[in-house]
C-alpha cells in the first residue's frame, strides 16, 4: 500500500509541475483561462511562479532538501524558456 501512495503522489506532482511549466512558458491556452476570468494574462505567470516558489520553500523547510531539486530545476528551465521567448529566439 505504501507504493500506491507514492505512485498517486507522483502522478499529482507531475500534473502540477506540467501545469506550472505551461503557465511559466507563456502557453496561450494555459493563460487564456485567466483572460476569460477578466484577469491579465501575466497573472497566470505570477501564479506559476508562486506555485514553484511554494514547492521549493516546502522542500527547503522540510527535509530532505534534495527533494526540492526537481522543483528548482523546473523553475530554472522555465526562466530560461521565458528569457529565450522574450528575445525572440523561441517561437
Commentary on this structure:
77% of the residues lie in helices and 0% in strands. With 91 residues, the protein is mainly alpha-helical. The protein has one domain (2-86). The radius of gyration is 15 Å and the shape is globular.
TL;DR of this structure?
With 91 residues, the chain is mainly alpha-helical. Helix content is 77%, strand content 0%.
For the record, give the distance between the C-alpha atoms at the N and C termini, rounded to a whole number.
Answer: 45 Å
Number of separate strands: 0
What is the H/E order?
Answer: HHHH
Biggest sheet features:
none
Q: Helical amount among residues, as a percent range?
A: over 70%
* Unreliable segments of 5+ consecutive residues: none
Number of helices: 4
Structural class: mainly alpha
Approximate strand percentage: under 5%
Note the overall shape: globular
Domain count: the total is 1
Tell me, rounded to a whole number, the average pLDDT.
Answer: 77
The quaternary structure here is single chain
Radius of gyration, rounded? 15 Å
Distinctive features:
single chain; about 90 residues; mainly alpha; about 75% helix; globular
Topology:
Blueprint: H1 2-24, H2 28-36, H3 42-61, H4 69-86
